[in-house]
Amino acid sequence: MSKHLVWFPFLMLGLTVILAVTIVFVDRGRNAPPPVIVVDGALNVEEGFPEEKRQAYYADLERISEPIFRAAETNEGDASAVRIARDQLLRMTVPGDERETHIRLIAAANVLMDGISGDADAFADAQLRVKQLYGELKWLQ
Question: Which of 101, 130, 127, 114 is nearest to 43 (CA)?
Fold first, then answer.
């Protein structure tokens, strides 16, 4: 009986260490920051956009960004449709004076995808971003 009592503290210490190590490894990836998408270097920006090309850009932007605006407005949407729209926005050639707005639309799409995936705070943030962008895009209205 006394042999069992001698090993008990070592057994408890070993189990505690194993539990602590397991918790550290499981929890390590839980609070990782979301992946950063570098837009500025990947975006095709062109200065001196001719008017006919600018009108085509606006038409394409309206068509491509429609799933983003719809998902933010209706509180429902498909993350894959928003992702496809974001990827198409990344591939567009953008007038130099529309660069910042275009980047903000891409960022709003990223946050919206998080919101659609279940993050209520991200969804509220995305709705605010999209609403502000919609107010600024006078040619869209």
Answer: 101
